[in-house]
Design brief:
CATH architecture: 3-Layer(aba) Sandwich
CATH topology: Rossmann fold
Order of helices and strands: EHEHEEHEHEH
Strand content: 15-25%
Helix content: 25-40%
Bound molecules: flavin mononucleotide
Number of strands: 6
CATH class: Alpha Beta
Number of domains: 1
Shape: globular
Largest sheet: 6 strands, mixed
Number of helices: 5
Distance between the termini: 9 Å
Length: 161
């Protein structure tokens, strides 16, 4: 079974988790990069990012380095923005069908996952959901214990395949 980790990350937390999951799962990895990236510094990113979520924007992505249709199982990851999915992942989810395919969800946040997993499940109609995990700022907060819990989570996900 070919496994793919797909994620977007503005500030590196979700990238760190995505790399950890990919290594633990023996999966390939695909990072989504918007054509126009938000500046990762300063308070205005919250305003622009929050507005982008509320306006349900689907920002254009740079060409994908990997063809997702070649894979059988997916880990999908996003930072939580305005309690929801970061728009670059929304773009990706609107473009591909995961109907009937096993899917596991992960997110990084500053305080809580909000409604992100419900939104992700809605954005992946027909997906066979195996589980989900959220981590709080793992780059700077309890890094190793949080990554270890992600590795253990991968084990439980793979045992369901
Ligand atoms: C535009 C924007 C909106 C955010 N909204 C939330 C939120 O609603 N809830 C929350 O807990 N964290 C929120 N955060 C914090 C991020 O989810 C958190 O820092 C996450 O670890 C960032 O992941 P990344 O480093 O992969 O980009 C927001 C961050 C940004 C930039």
């Amino acid at each position: 079974m070919r496994k793919l980790v797909v994620f977007y990350s503005l500030e590196g937390n979700t990238r760190l988790v995505a790399n950890t999951i990919a290594r633990a799962a023996g999966a390939d990895i695909l990072e989504l990069v918007p054509e126009k990236e938000l500046s990762a510094r300063g308070f205005t990113r919250y305003l622009w990012g929050g507005k982008s979520v509320l306006m349900r924007e689907k920002p254009a992505l740079k060409p994908l380095a990997i063809d997702p249709s070649q894979y059988d199982m997916f880990f999908l990851g996003t930072p939580v923005w305005a309690w929801s999915i970061a728009p670059p992942l929304s773009t990706f989810l609107s473009r591909y069908s995961f109907s009937g395919k096993p899917v596991a969800l992960f997110c990084c946040h500053g305080g809580g996952p909000g409604k992100v997993f419900r939104k992700m499940r809605e954005a992946v109609p027909g997906g066979v959901f195996l589980g989900e995990i959220d981590l709080q700022e793992p780059r700077t907060n309890d890094t190793e214990p949080q990554l270890e819990s992600a590795r253990k989570w991968v084990g439980t996900i793979l045992s369901k395949l």
